[in-house]
Structures are given as C-alpha cells and as structure tokens.
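Note to self: the last two entries modelled the partners one at a time, which told us nothing about the interface. This time every component goes in together.
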Amino acid sequence: MAEIDITQKDENISEITISGELDIYCVMDTYQQLFQQLEVKEQTLLNFGGISEIDTAGVQLLIMLLKIISDKNGTYQVTSLGEPLADYSNLFQLNRYFIDFEAINKNASTIEESQS
Amino acid sequence: MSLDAVLQTFYVEAKEHLEAMENVLLKMDEGESDDEMLNEIFRSAHTIKGSAGIFGLDHIVNFTHVVENVLDRVRANEIEIEKKLIDVLFKCRDHIQNLVGANLDEFNTQPDLQKTDQELLETLTPWSNEVGEQTEQESNLPDNNETEIISDSETVTAENEIEDEEKDNLWHISLRLSADCLRNGMDPLSFIKFLTTLGEIKHVETLIDHFPKPEDFDAETLYLAYEIALQSKASFEEIENTFMFVQEDSAITILPPSATVEDYRTLIDKLPEDNQKIEEVLIKCGSLTKPLLEQDSVPPSNAIANNVDVPDNVETVETDKNKLEQLGIESPAVTDVAADAELTKAKQSKTSEGKQIRVDSNRLDLLINLIGELVINQQRIELLSKESKNPPLTEAVDDFENFTNQIRDAALSLRMVPIGGTFQRFKRLVRDTAQELNKEIELTIDGADTELDRLMVEKLGDPLTHIIRNAMDHGLESVEERVSLGKSTKGQLKLAAYHEAGHIVISISDDGSGIDKDRVREKAIEKGILNNESQLNDNELFHLIFHPGFSTAASVTNLSGRGVGMDVVKRNVEALQGSIDISSQAGLGSEFKIRLPLTLAIIDGFHVEAKGTHFIIPQATIIECINLAHHQDIKGRHCINLRGEMIPFLNISEIFNLTTNKAPSPEESNKTDTLKRELVIVQFGSDIAGIEVGTLNGEIQTVVKPLGPIFRALKGIGGSSLLGNGEIAFILDVPQLIELAIEKEASSRVTIETNTNNLEQ
Amino acid sequence: MDKSSQFLTFTIADEHFGMDLHQTREIIEYAGITQVPLMPRFISGVINLRGEVVPVIDLSVRLGREPITIHKRTCVIVIELHSSEQHCVLGLLADAVNEVIDISASHIEDAPAFGAKIKAEFIQGIAKKDDEFIVLLNAEKTLSPVELAHLVEADLQ
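The predicted structure of the combined assembly is written out below.
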C-alpha cells in the first residue's frame, strides 16, 4: 500500500511524497486519497524516491497527478524518481514526463550529434 | 477477459504445443527426422517459454529455455538426435507439462518438481553445454538473443542474410489495449518486456491523450496508449502472439517491415488520436519519415530525412508499392537468427491457420444452449400456428423451422472436433507401455478425421486408455510368444473411427490372444458374478469383464489387471449415451466397438407419455411403434411375438413405479393409459426390446438438459428436456433401461430358482 | 466488533427456519412439479426455472419430518450453493416466506448438542426473534449435492 504525504513548504510550494508499493491493488484508494487532499500550488515538488514497486497502473496514476498539476497551471519538479520508477520510465521512455523538458531535449540533441 | 480466462488460454496453447512436441518426438523415435519437424518442436518450446514469460511463470521459462537451446542445437546439426536424447526429451516434455500444471508457488513448495527439474537439467548438460555457451536462465531479456546467434553462427550465408535483411526488420506496433487490461492483471509492462526478447525496442511512445477529467479518473482503467517501433527478425505470428491474451476489446495493429505507406495512412486514420499528432509520434518512433507523408506539400525536414530516395509524387509511391522499411533508420542488427529460420514457414502455415479462430468453449456452449431454447420456442410457435389454422402463418412457421434446424446444425458442427487428436495421444501411451512390458507393439490409426462432439471427445480419453492398456497388457503377446505362435513379432493395435447409421463407432482392435471365454466364465463364477448354470452368449460373456472387480489377468501388473478400469469404461461410455460391443476370437485378437451418438446437446427423440409423466426416447434407437392391443403377450411374461420373433418388453410405468395419483396436476387423468397400450420397439447394439408406454405423442427435437449430480444414481433416465409447453420430459437411456429391466427380472428369477432348488432338496 | 448477517426466514409446518441470504437466489410461486421416477421422498421433483431444470427438495423430509403439505401459498425458495466442485441450484419447498432479518453473531446460539429434533450438523445456530426460535440452517450440510446424491444412490439400491 502506498503512502502519500503532502506538506506545504511555504505559501506557493508544496511537496508530495509518495512511497511504498504503488500498483493495481492500491491505486484506487491511493488516487482517492490523493485527489481529495490535493491542492495545487504554484510549484509542486514531487518525491517518488520512496516508491518500492510500481506497475503500469501506478505509473498511470503519477501521470494523472502530473496532468492535474499542469492543467491547473502549476509547475512541478520531480525531486527523486527512485529505482523502480526510473527503470520503468527508461523502458517506456517516459522520462520526458518526469524529468524536466530541458534536460531531455539536451540529451536528444547530443545523441543526434553523435550519430551524424 | 479476466486473468483466469487469459491464463486459461495460455494453458490451452501450452497443451497444444506440448502435444505437438510429443508428436514430433514420437516421429523421431520412429527414426524420422527432417528440418520441418525440428523446427516445429523448437517453435513449440520457444512459444511455451515466451508465453510463460508474459505471465511471469519463471519456473517454466527457466527450464524450457534450456530445452529450447538443446533443440536449437539439434536443429543446427550441432548435436545428433540419438535414442538417449529422445528419451530425455520425452521426459523434459512431460516435465514441462507438469510445470505448466503447477503455478509458481506450487513449484516453489514442491520439492519433487524441483528435484526433477534439477535432474533433467543435469541430464541435459551433455547436449546443452558442449560449445561452452552460457545459458542464461535467469532472464529472457534482450541480451539472451546472443546465445541463439552463437548457435547458428557456423552458417556464413545466414550472416549475409542478416545484413540483407537489416532493413527488413523494423516493425511498428500500435496498441490501444482494452480498458480493463490492468484490472484483469495484464500489465503492458509484460508485453514490452516480452517484445524485448523478440528484438530491440527502438522506440516506445506512451500516449496520454485519453486521460479523463481528474474527477472521472478510474485508477484501474488503462488510459495509456502505445506506439512501438520494434526491430526484430521474429515472425508476424510470434509478435502477434505476444498480445494473444489481450486481443479482446483491444485494438492492436502490427505493421510488418513490409508495410506500405498506405498501410500507415490507414493506421493513422484508424487511430482515435488526432492525425497530425499520430504522424508526429510515428516519426518519433522512426517508423515513418516525415517526407513521405508530406511530400506533396512541404519539403522534407533535414533533421529526419535520411539518405532515402523520395519519390516525387504520391502516385509513384503507391504504384511502386515502395516498402516503408527503406525509410527505416538503419542500426546494428540484434537479431534472433534462430527464430528467423522458420519465418517463412511460419508465414506459410499462417495462411492455413488464418481461417481458424479460437473461441472460448464456454461461449460456444452458451450459443448452443441458446439455440436449444430457440428450438424449443420454435416448437411452441409451431404448435400455436397449427392451432390457429392460418395457412400463411403455418407456412411462415415451416420456413422458420427449416432455418432453425439449419442454425442448429451449423452451431452443433462448431463443437465437432476430429477424433484424431485424441487418438494421437495414445501413440505415446503405447510407446511407453510397450517399452515397459517389453513387447513390440505397433499402433495404427484410421479415420482420424471423423468428427464428434467436443464434450464426448473429452470424456472418451479415460475409457479408451483403459481399453488400450488392457489390450496391450492382456491381449497382445510378448515377442517370444508371438514368434512361437507364428505371428509377426510386432503386435498390431488399431484405433479406428467411422460413421455407422447415425452413430459414431470407435473401434479398438488387436491381433493378440483374444479373450479366453472359459477363463472369463471361470473367473466370473469364482468371483460370484456368475451363477454356475447360467447360459450366456459370447457378447454377454464378454461383457462380464466390465463387471466391477473383475479381472482375468493371471498376474497383476501395474498397468491393468487390478480389475479397476473396465467397469469405469462401461460407465463412462454409457454416460455418453453410448454402448460397447466386444468381439473376440481365441488366438486371433479382440475388438472393442464403442458406439456413440453424434452429439449430446440436441437429439431427435420420440415423445411418449405414461401415467402423466413425459418421456423422450432417442430416435436413433427406435425401430418401430406398434399397438400392443393387436399382439398377445406370451403366457404372462413380458414378451411378444413380432413377425415370428420373440421380443421382450418392459412397462415403463412398472419400471419407474409411476402412479397417476402421485402426479401433481389433478386434471390429468389416466383414462387413456389403461385402454391404449403402445409399444415402442428399440434396438441397442444387438439387443431388441419393447418399451410399453401410455401414449405416443410423436417426433420431437429436443435439447438435452442434464439432470445434475443428485440424480447420478438414477438408471434408465439420461437427462431431461423441456417440451414446447414448458413441461419437463425425461430422456430415456435405453441401454440402461433394458439393463434395469433385466436386473429386476433376474432378481425375481433368482427367487424362483432358489425356490425350485429347495424343492429338489 | 459484532458482525451481523442477513437471513431469509421461512416457515414449514409452523416451524421457523433461516437461511443465509447470500445462498438464496429467488422465491417463486409453487406451480406444480414434475416428479422424478424412483426418487426418495425428500426429492419432490424438478421444475422448469426459465429453461433450467432445477431439482426441488422437500426440506421437511430431509430434516426427518413428514412431507410438506402442498397448499395455495406453498412456495419454492431457489437457492444456490457453491461447493468446491461446482455450483448447484436447488429449490426448497416452504409453506411461507417471512422476511429478511439481520441477526448479529452474538445473538446466534450454538445448536444444542442433543435434544433438538433436527440433526445438529444441519443447524448453523439458533436465533430468537419475538419470542420465537429460528433454526438457522447449515445449507452446505443439509443440501450438499454430494450428500444428496449418496442418499439417492442408497435409496435406489
């Protein structure tokens, strides 16, 4: 069962920490909990470092979270991915959703350079 | 489709592949061997491993992987097929079957299975380890493909082919999986992981366009969509099989390297997302290059255009059918040469298999049940239309009946399967048993294409096994005996199936010693089954071997001869509304003939009534109906003289203790019963008998409704059926009914006999 | 925590019985029954339940009483049992169906080890409502298809 912790860093910044197992067995409850407590600030720090296990349902939930934040004109920064999520993200090439766009663009261009 | 159902599909598939493996092994055992066979067995092992991987059934993956490697080496002519290897492979196949039967937890908690696992892996080492190749059992992730390349590396031409085909192997896979996918325990993660075993994933694009509003988000529903570029030398089938468990409600498009621009256009149009967006995604995947799609307007973008010759206009592209792979991004090949070898063959077989679809048998059963209801309803309508005396209506109803019958026949034929598959399985049994008994036995199969109801096929396995074992154990002699008798060394066992007068006959015959009549008689008397004075004809005598607890084997072997089994045979066959005939000649052999109805679901019957209870007699058993009033009973016994032949008959009301006053509907009276005495003459096997009933109500087509487990012990009634008016009728099981009558009569005769004995003393 | 379960209560010859609501499927009017030849008395027969042929049990006989008397208000309680082997649909004859009641676990007494008119193993417990005793039946035991089949077999021999 995943644990959610939402703390207010200051007026404009909140931090969401999700840890534990985030999979199909608990996404329902987790999302409900998350959706109820969520109050999108100007900036949200996301710490996924404590996620010990994740499957597609879990990843989907996180993407929904990112979408909610950006739909409400908030910005987010993922402070930690944690190994399971990082693995998943690499396999599905999802990093651009989790890591900021600048970085992934830079990476992409260097690859192209090295190829040509 | 729930996970259970999906797993079920896996089991069915695995079972089929295991059967295929067994068949190949049997052929190898007979000394046959060709590339086709080797490819087939390899492919089976490969597929089992792959599917097991999707479900995380690592115990199956790990073991099968090693077997697959050995098979691959056989295929590459690195090792020779020898008797010893075939024996081991037989055992491995059986072990895989056991592994498939056990889930991961069971495997981990069953030391026996693990022990066999270890032992077999060790036995396999001489064949698997020679080149010092590292068998990576732990995972089947991409790097594993190397092992397969090594094994095929000696063929130089193959390597050349790789280079030629590099461009040919960029596949595009578009996944819009069922929304219930996650809920049913299927995680796209496992598909992606499996795809990595088939090749290299060049790009995955996860689309998040389908997310609902936050308040509508159902965390267990899959909203993600995928576009995947896969570089692989796998066959279409192999890639397609990755998704075989999620095909339902999913939109899966697999574009092979040979796909044309047109194919991609179709895909783009078909996908629910915005066309332009999809184009971009496909370009990102590398499956498509921008110029092709935009050639009539915008010049190619430099960043993506490779050194590809872009045609000037669309028409050229279409007429030339330029293949898209030419536009694919070239990259070093990580390929599975071994798997590719049968690419062509897989494609060939695809064409024939393409006409087959796999349907959940439960759905088929449901369809047949519904059609049963349709038949009943049609009968009700027919009844009403006749009463209405409205000719156009009656005519329309007649047409309706015609179509209903056609639908029924068509639906029933869906459930018909050839008996061949069942027969085939006995090859292995015969091989192993012959080895065990130290006999030489050759099994021949005839009429493998004969079709019968799948439900029956399933239930025939046991009885056939018993009869075949019995024939091998008691019937067929040892080599020495056969030689001394002047017979050929190899005992002949024959399985045949054919149609005969609305029935299917399955015959099991051998050229062994035959059934020893005297011995059967002796034994039956010894066991108290038979009375010393009883006079029996051959068939009756032979039937004694079906008596529980009967066995003629002089020595008890571990195969048969314990007297269990043959009584089960009879019971099973009777449960299928069938019968068994035995013929046997001393020294020449025996034949068991199992006679079965064509189908169990719907039968043509004859509707009769006795004391207010409705019965249906299966039409196939009926010879004729006569009015008893015109015939005379022979001296108080239930016997009539029909055209010079003595026919025993039974009274259904007596046999079932039917009394009218028990009948719940009071308006039913017994006025007809006492006046009219109708006799239905039935035949079963060689027996002819009459069944006395109250009224004859005519032919009826009827759906068999099993009576359920509670009534299992009830003899003479095989099932129930609903009549057009909603009333329930009982379907008579004629052979059981006759047996019941004989038993009743026998018990009364015994009392008479004992009485006369007393008098004599 | 005091767990309560729902029971369907019904009457046979002035005696009140309860059956776990989850095991009951529907209640239908008694509209005749087709007797099955040679069956012991506890099997009343079979009925056509929308195309399904369902055996009907005379619970009264099964519990060792006189057969139920059929009258205008007789009804059939259709129950569904899920045993390990298969699920099984059965009908039960009752004089009247009363109500669905909640009975908390603490209000259910164990079946008396002796003195009861019904075999103890058939009873899940005894509950009391408005000064009347309700015998809560153990349907798995009382109506186990396997057990019933054995009884039929024994009776036929």
